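We emphasize that the prediction below concerns an isolated chain of 346 residues; any contacts that depend on oligomerization or on bound cofactors are therefore not represented. The input was used exactly as deposited, without trimming of termini.
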Amino acid sequence: MLPFPGTEHWHYLHGKPKSSATLKAIPEHFKVNEVLPFEPVGEGEHLFLQIEKTGLNTGFVAQQLARFYGVKERDVGYAGRKDKHAVTTQWFSVWLPGVKSAPVKQFVYDGCNIKQQSWHSKKIRTGNLSHNEFQITLTDLEKDTDLEERIAKVKHTGVPNYFGPQRFGNINSDGVAGNLAMARLLINNETIKKREKRNMAVSALRSWLFNEAVSERLTKLSTTPENGDVFSLAGSNSFFVAETIDSEILTRLAGADIHLSAPLWGAGKPASLGVPGELENSLAERFPEICNTLAALGLKQERRKLLLYPKDFSYQLHEQQLLLNFSLPSGCFATSVIRELLCLNP
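Result of the prediction step, given as a token string:
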């Protein structure tokens, strides 16, 4: 059985925090607002609903929408999954062929509040969002003297762009996150019948390996650019290899036009060269079963930014509470920001 050495050992950019607090004491302490990169045009066959949901996960709400409107689940779209134990506002689309913007009955379900409703010509697809806005209240705060200094560092120098614990699932009786336990089935060439669970297992496996790559990079090379590094272009999934770090690269990096990256594993080898290449290729030597499984699943070598920079960052301290406001790009985790600030109470 392939061991996973947990998810808690990954390197901190600013050292392990000394402060502690409780996250999600109640759902209202974790609020997320999803922002689309476009406005619904007001006509078409896809009903767009902006839903504020409390205590419900995204997949479950999508199922209820399918039942309510009498369509198949695949005809319901959403850009990304949001936390269950939270108050989250996100957009769903429901394909109602032949309706074409006619009035329809409004979706009703306990825990859901319809904020807006419109029509559009296309379905919402995974990743089809601009950013997420977070308002997070941390309670039972045990504040160390370095907390505000850490906040300033996070605001200006970012945090490791780790996939958060939500990606890996709850810890089971064996001490392994649930989605990684499912991933063991993939590694052993066993079948996961349900498509959604299979996708979650694949995603968790690849995400875990990415986090390992980020932690290794921060531990051994820090965030200083090296000859042979692979840089991601801001605002896109494109990347390029810099065989030599020159003044142009440094200027673009300082201006956030490009970003250091780490591998999302797939078939072949990472594009990196030199010392970064040696470090990244060592993953295949350390975790051959994982790398081979991801390649066999048909995934390609891709890149993800090494660091995450929260935008519109602000905070307030009130006795034993810390209130955080910030926004993050699609696919990034608020828990990775919080991890650099303080330790969470069990």
